[in-house]
């Protein structure tokens, strides 16, 4: 890392030929307006997700993934109508040119940690449906949801920064992220050693589907790489106490590519097991992803068909899981 700063504007960074991923210290984001306009597909320091919450979620993930395959397959994601539950090795394929991803996963979405009688039902359209939880290990749901809500809090604090970077009112995204359609994953990557088939990577080259992703990755296990504008893969080396933030396709569509989504992949050649936790922060599922007026001009006419966030995410998930559907 050269040095953490100066803070950069998203618009200046979208075609970036970065060689290292810049660090943004969020303690600066609470200060001056200038600092608050700083924005990112970056590494975030002082992100506010408490360390014990992270370690409990990771411990639960380790215990869950260590269960017998047949137990985990009880909650196979292919049985769910809204892509919730367990993904086995090679169960998904993020890059259609590849054969399948060498990771296991567990996916879930918004749910109150302590549901109350007045928890209003969600209207998730294409993505409607409940989470499915494993019976083991004990406390799995609580640790996963504790992390989820801490990451949601962080994500909500980032939307005003994105709004300011787009010259929008600071609260522009507030009523569009009331029950944010955030999907969280616990991921396990076995080590890939010896001769590795390039078409079977931990997770193949892809962009994420939502507005942005907050990614925690295990310290000391280098695996994640981000593609720069010169087509060069740059290591996103894990830095303790930080999370990675990257732009996803909902934001690319909404901003007419003023924010570009980041192509990334992960290959675990470290020789040891790796765990990571992405939280994909999307807008409410009924929001129409229509190019923001400030992002459309004669030189940059609207590029994308208008679609709701829910239909969009569902179509991407269908494509990702299609290759393994017929095997069930
Ligand atoms: O595990 C990682 O570092 C990346 C995960 C990822 O890109 C994803 O789940 O979309
Ligand atoms: Fe990703």
TrEMBL record:
GO terms for molecular function: metal ion binding; oxidoreductase activity. Keywords: Iron, Metal-binding, Oxidoreductase. It comes from the Eukaryota. It holds the Pfam family 2OG-FeII_Oxy. Residues 180-283 form the Fe2OG dioxygenase domain. The keyword Heme does not apply. PANTHER family: FE2OG DIOXYGENASE DOMAIN-CONTAINING PROTEIN, OXIDOREDUCTASE, 2OG-FE II OXYGENASE FAMILY PROTEIN. Belongs to the iron/ascorbate-dependent oxidoreductase family. This is Fe2OG dioxygenase domain-containing protein. It comes from Jaapia argillacea MUCL 33604.
């Amino acid at each position: 890392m050269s040095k953490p700063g100066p803070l950069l504007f998203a618009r200046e960074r979208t075609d970036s030929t970065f060689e290292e991923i810049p660090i943004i210290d969020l303690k600066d984001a609470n200060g001056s307006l200038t600092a608050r306009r700083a924005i990112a597909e970056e590494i975030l320091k002082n992100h506010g997700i408490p360390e014990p919450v992270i370690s409990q979620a990771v411990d639960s993930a380790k215990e869950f993934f260590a269960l017998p395959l047949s137990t985990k397959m009880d909650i196979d994601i292919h049985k769910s109508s809204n892509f919730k539950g367990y993904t086995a090795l090679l169960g998904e394929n993020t890059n259609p040119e590849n054969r399948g991803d060498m990771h296991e996963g567990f996916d879930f979405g918004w749910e109150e940690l302590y549901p109350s009688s007045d928890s209003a039902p969600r209207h998730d359209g294409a993505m409607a449906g409940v989470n499915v939880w494993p019976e083991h290990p004990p406390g799995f749901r609580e640790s996963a949801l504790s992390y989820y809500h801490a990451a949601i809090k962080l994500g909500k604090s980032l939307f005003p920064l994105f709004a300011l970077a787009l010259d929008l009112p600071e609260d522009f995204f507030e009523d569009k992220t009331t029950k944010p359609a955030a999907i969280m994953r616990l991921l396990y990557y076995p080590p890939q050693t010896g001769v590795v088939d390039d078409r079977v990577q931990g997770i193949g080259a892809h962009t994420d589907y939502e507005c942005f992703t907050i990614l925690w990755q295990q310290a000391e296990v280098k695996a994640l790489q981000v593609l720069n504008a010169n087509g060069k893969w740059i290591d996103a080396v894990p830095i303790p106490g930080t999370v990675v933030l990257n732009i996803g396709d909902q934001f690319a569509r909404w901003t007419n590519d003023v924010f570009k989504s980041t192509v990334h992949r992960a290959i675990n050649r470290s020789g040891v097991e790796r765990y990571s936790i992405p939280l994909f922060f999307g807008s409410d599922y009924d929001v129409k992803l229509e190019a923001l007026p400030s992002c459309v001009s004669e030189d940059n006419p609207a590029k994308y068909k208008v679609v709701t966030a829910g239909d969009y995410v569902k179509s991407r998930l269908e494509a990702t899981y299609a290759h393994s559907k017929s095997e069930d």
